[in-house]
Design goal:
The complex is a heterodimer of chains A (405) and B (172).
Chain A (H helix, E strand, L loop, with lengths): L18 E5 L11 E7 L2 E8 L7 H5 L8 H5 L6 H16 L5 H29 L4 H21 L19 H25 L3 H7 L7 H6 L4 H5 L7 H4 L20 H26 L19 H6 L1 H11 L8 E8 L4 E8 L7 E5 L1 H5 L3 H5 L4 H10 L4 H5 L1
Antiparallel strand pairs in A: 1-2, 2-3, 4-5, 5-6
Helix pairs in contact in A: 3-4, 4-5, 4-11, 4-16, 5-6, 6-11
Chain B lengths: L4 H12 L4 E4 L5 E5 L4 H10 L7 E9 L8 E9 L4 E9 L5 E3 L8 H12 L2 E3 L45
Parallel strand pairs in B: 2-5, 6-7
Antiparallel strand pairs in B: 1-2, 3-4, 4-5
The chains are: A mainly alpha (405), B alpha/beta (172).
């Protein structure tokens, strides 16, 4: 090799004192498709530039061609750790647009499903913080309880991860006795496991050293960055959509909002644990309230929007007409403009819907909480160690599907 | 809960007069439109005033109405006063030929990526934005995909007729 090799180095790259590290998009420590181009000084992060959009699937554009009931499967794929919340959030948005009032029993059943989804979401996020700090045990302990939650989904709607649960107006079928047994089983077994999980982490010296002060943000900055959900509450701001704009009869339940004080990774962890306890309390209350209500109501009486029973479709004229109109997207949808928010697993999940009276939305925008707060990540990790940047990222509960829509 | 929509309306009219148009309250949320050169003044006014304090930007997005001559593109802000728990919706419209709108990033850090997303999808040029690049789509893309002139289905296909999907001639 006598010929001189020409290597094209970027301008100034030899004189440069920092190292460029390309973290992601398929790095195992980032739990999803996140890319960060980091400038490192030794092990300290000088700056980082997040790149998003690797799994962008143009849901907002697709939604402009789909009838309302076909948009639910799109919402599944936003925050796939708590898809029932997304599904029900969408149903609630359409119900708000159409002015549909749901019976109390539907509201309470929805609350049960949404709170189970919240537990499933927080359980993954918190146990993954453990994994990223080197403690795999907690993750393995709680994983089988997510399985129990998925079995409940399966019993209610037939699927597990991308649930497509419920319909506009209620649920597609009533909860079976087995579903209630499974919920009771979960309520009975999970508290002990959550307690054990907390015992493993909350006062664990190694875990505390790794998380306290890491990725801290003040309440004021967090609000300016548009933080919502547990990440905002960890800074001490007690904003929760379930309290401030109650939907699905959350006002009937007695629960508190856990808040932190410093807004660091440790506080985010504690807030999520606290919320899981609150969610268990809410599900317990909902189960008790259900006992006082008639057992056969699982959807609102809105024949124009809710698919009739198959039996009736074959035997009754009106049911056949409604069935045809709903499936063909010929139902009348009122023109209007509505914003509806629900408390998702990681923050305020909002649906901004403009209807022009057509069969599909004229415009549908998803307010995706993690897309908005992820932009604070460079500020959160500036000056931190690389390993702290990893643990900070997992504590933010970023879900790639939601980030990229 | 002392802050009412009536009070916000009267404060806005007092400050900006006739510039504030289309005041509506769909589903209880106050919604209004202002000229696009006033967007920062309105946002700043809503942010600063002691009795308004809309200091949380919930959402920022775009919308395209090809039939509105001279005001085809819209930017929709959702603001939230967390102390009083009141939400409002604020819109500005701009012509598709001059899609320049002032950026809100000086006021809200949250607006940064949301404006990039809106630029990415609708081509709204946020004047003064620190880093106005595409965010979800590839940098090489040379059109703005959420505009209504880009239909979702492949137009060369003949087996999928628009009339069958509610947006064709028959539906209107």
């Amino acid at each position: 090799m006598s010929e001189q090799q020409h290597i094209n180095l970027p301008e100034g790259s030899i004189e440069k004192q920092t190292t460029t590290l390309n973290l992601g998009p398929t790095h195992p420590a980032t739990h999803g498709v996140f890319q960060n181009i980091m400038e490192l000084d030794g092990e300290r992060v000088v700056s980082t530039v997040p790149t998003v959009g690797y799994i962008h699937r143009a849901f907002e554009k697709i939604a402009e061609r789909r009838p309302y009931y076909q948009i639910t499967p799109l919402t599944d794929r936003l925050n796939y750790c708590s898809s029932p919340i997304n599904n029900i959030g969408w149903h609630l948005t359409v119900e708000k647009l159409l002015g549909i009032e749901t019976p109390k029993r539907v509201d309470y059943l929805r609350v049960i499903i949404m709170e189970l989804a919240r537990i499933a979401d927080h359980l993954i996020c918190n146990s993954v913080i453990g994994v990223d700090s080197g403690a795999f045990t907690g993750f393995l302990y709680v994983m089988q309880y997510r399985e129990l939650i998925y079995e409940i989904y399966e019993e209610v709607c037939g699927s597990r991860l991308t649930t497509n649960i419920g319909r506009i107006g209620g649920f597609e079928r009533n909860f079976t006795p087995v579903a209630f047994q499974k919920i009771e089983k979960f309520l009975k077994e999970y508290p002990a496991v959550l307690k054990e999980f907390e015992n493993l982490f909350n006062r664990n010296r190694i875990f505390m050293e790794r998380t306290i002060g890491v990725g801290a943000i003040t309440g004021e900055r967090a609000l300016n960055y548009g933080f919502t959900g547990p990440n905002l509450r960890a800074t001490g701001v007690d904003y929760d959509v379930r309290i401030s704009q109650p939907y699905s009869s959350y006002q009937d339940f007695d629960f508190s909002i856990p808040v932190g004080s410093t807004g660091d990774t440790y506080d985010r962890f504690l807030v999520r644990n606290g919320e899981m306890w609150q969610s268990l309390g809410i599900i317990r209350q909902a189960m008790d309230k259900l006992k006082t209500l008639p057992e056969d109501i699982f959807h609102a009486d809105v024949p124009a929007y809710y698919l009739p029973d198959k039996e009736d479709v074959y035997n009754k004229m009106e049911a056949l007409i409604y069935h045809f109109k709903i499936v063909m997207g010929e139902t009348e949808i009122l023109p209007g403009e509505v914003y509806h928010a629900v408390e998702g697993g990681n923050g305020e999940l909002g649906y901004y819907l403009i209807s022009d009276g057509g069969r599909a939305p004229y415009r549908l925008h998803f307010r995706r909480p993690c897309f908005i707060y992820y932009q604070a990540y460079p500020e959160l990790v500036k000056g931190a160690m690389l390993s702290d940047a990893i643990i900070c990222m997992s504590s933010l509960n970023l879900i790639a599907g939601e980030l990229d829509a | 809960m002392s802050l009412t929509n009536e009070h916000i309306k009267s404060r806005l009219v007092e400050k900006f007069g006739d510039a504030i148009t289309n005041m509506e309250e769909p589903y209880g949320m106050l919604s209004f439109t202002a000229p696009k050169d006033l967007n920062l003044k309105v946002l700043q006014f809503l942010y600063d005033e002691q009795d308004l304090q809309f200091r949380f930007m919930t959402d920022l997005t775009g919308v395209h109405f090809p039939d509105q001559q001279g005001a085809e593109l819209g930017v929709v802000y959702h603001l939230h006063n967390m102390r009083e728990n009141v939400r409002i919706r604020f819109k500005v419209f701009t012509a598709v030929a001059t899609p320049q709108v002032f950026t809100a990033t000086r006021l809200f850090e949250a607006a940064n990526w949301m404006e990039r997303e809106t630029f990415d999808f609708y081509g709204i040029d946020f004047v003064g934005h620190p880093n106005l690049k595409r965010i979800l789509n590839v940098d090489e893309m040379d059109y703005f995909p959420m505009r209504k002139e880009f239909p979702l289905e492949d137009q060369t296909r003949i087996d999928k007729d628009d009339e069958m999907f509610g947006r064709g001639e028959i539906a209107k």
